[in-house]
Amino acid sequence: MTLLFDLPPAPAVPLLGEDALFPVRRVFCVGRNYEAHAREMGDTSVRETPIWFTKAPSAVCLAGGTIPYPPGTENCHYEMELVVGIGAPGFRVSAEEAQALVLGYACGLDLTRRDLQNAAKAKGYPWDTGKDFENAAVIGPITRAGAFGAVGAQRIALRQNGAVKQEAALSDMIWSVGELIADLSSLYHVAPGDLIYTGTPAGVGPIVAGDVLEGEIAGLAGIRVEIGEAE
């Protein structure tokens, strides 16, 4: 049998200070994992498990360049996040066992077509078109877990055109990295190449063409992306 056409290679993320790339297999994302952000989204519910959604690997975009303003939206938002890169397989692991699956961490930016997401939520529809689109999962270089250390009170922040818009500590997450991996591994066979976007602090807001977004997490390589004109 012959394939009718070739598919592009899987996206790959550089490892900081190494001549190595992390090939992306899947992208998992967590919704409303900081209490202040949940409140600004109008969510005051008590949740027993994380809110999961996915993005296609084709949504992954390496930081450092210019991306066009997304199509089909008039209200696209930035969401700064810690990203976890999985380097070992796991299934039904405990939160304590989960750390052994982590290869490293990176700064990430989850772009959201908020108008499409809100319209879908109002009708009880999935969030797919609001969350999963080209360049919607911006990511910087991955720092190995051993070099970063334990996830704790590290500062996470985002600047829009030089002004700080989001600022929190990673310890403000409702669900810790270990708890997120444990929950995800109860739903999927977690595997090398999986990325987990762990949620965003309060302060999300709209972007426009010409904006410069700069994100940082203490101990990781920062990210920068410029928003170009819509195609």
TrEMBL record:
Transmembrane segments: none annotated. Its EC number is 3.7.1.20. Keywords: Hydrolase, Metal-binding, Pyruvate. It is an enzyme of class 3 (hydrolase). GO terms for molecular function: acetylpyruvate hydrolase activity; fumarylpyruvate hydrolase activity; metal ion binding. It comes from the Bacteria. Residues 27-224 form the Fumarylacetoacetase-like C-terminal domain. SUPFAM superfamilies: FAH. The keyword Metal-binding applies. InterPro entries: Fumarylacetoacetase-like_C, Fumarylacetoacetase_C_sf. The keyword Hydrolase applies. It holds the Pfam family FAA_hydrolase. This is Fumarylpyruvate hydrolase. It comes from Novosphingobium chloroacetimidivorans.
